[in-house]
Amino acid sequence: MPELLLVASKLSKRFGGLQALSDVSFSICKGDIYGLIGPNGAGKTTLFNVLTSLYVPESGSCNFMGHQLTRLKPHEIAIAGLARTFQNIRLFGALSAIENVMIGRHIRTRAGVFGAITRNQATRAEEAAIEQRAQELLDYVGIGDRANHLASALPYGDQRRLEIARALATEPALLALDEPAAGMNASETVVLRRLIEKIRDDGMTVLLIEHDMKLVMGLCNRVLVLEYGKVLAEGKPAEVQRNPKVIEAYLGAGAATEHSKEAS
Ligand SMILES: Nc1ncnc2c1ncn2[C@@H]1O[C@H](COP(=O)(O)OP(=O)(O)OP(=O)(O)O)[C@@H](O)[C@H]1O
């Protein structure tokens, strides 16, 4: 039996009169690349924001390795082992690539603010180790030669990979990626796909929001489909792909019947 890493149960989130999530339940197992798809406005980012405590749900719970995620503060989420990237990249543009990764690393170190001010020998040794690890992570995501470039000056695809390196610096058990391929060209997407597979092969679990259907279906071992904040389908990519409700949600009413006619 695969080990359960995250169990979300009946999560609901409302914005005024809009029910953005209704009783959303799903489970992620260790080693999954778990896809989260759905038409625009389906509630995918809202779900990410609930999981990472940026939003407080009206009801429901989410157990992540023994932590009740909905009770944690946003900064406690990364310490609990869940790191994320954002749909709209959120880097420190005026800092270098390596400095951005070093910031992610600080939650796992001991020096703290006092050490950073006094800069004693132990702190200096720790800073050197943080810098070395940050460089390793830049190498890992494939932008090691751009460590000293300003984050804002990096091409778009590299900024996305830098965000992943910063998230990896927190040593997550679960890495949540919000549309990592957005704005990437076909060859950058291939490189991203290999990177996500490498992350999984190195023992992490990945939760992925993605609009690129080819990427989702080729990469994920399970997929959750949301529509109007509700779970429309959940399962293996091949099952989800031929589910008439999913086809209809993506292609419009009537498409499912057409599709099944074509398939027969
Ligand atoms: N902070 C907010 N305040 C009010 N409404 C919100 C807020 N965040 C999201 N919504 C609404 O909740 C619904 C779900 O939005 P969400 O961004 O989660 O969808 P999504 O599936 O991520 O869409 P997309 O694929 O376009 O990114 C939408 O109708 C959106 O307008």
Automatic annotation (TrEMBL):
GO biological process, one term: L-alanine transport
Superkingdom classification of source: Bacteria
Cellular component GO terms, alphabetical: plasma membrane
All copies of domain ABC transporter, residue ranges: 6-253
Pfam families to which the protein is assigned, alphabetical: ABC_tran, BCA_ABC_TP_C
Annotated InterPro entries: AAA+_ATPase (IPR003593), ABC_AA/LPS_Transport (IPR051120), ABC_transporter-like_ATP-bd (IPR003439), BCA_ABC_TP_C (IPR032823), P-loop_NTPase (IPR027417)
Keyword Ubl conjugation part of the UniProt annotation: no
One MF annotation (Gene Ontology) recorded for this entry: ATP binding
Keywords assigned by UniProt, alphabetized: ATP-binding, Cell membrane, Membrane, Nucleotide-binding, Transport
Protein name: ABC transporter ATP-binding protein
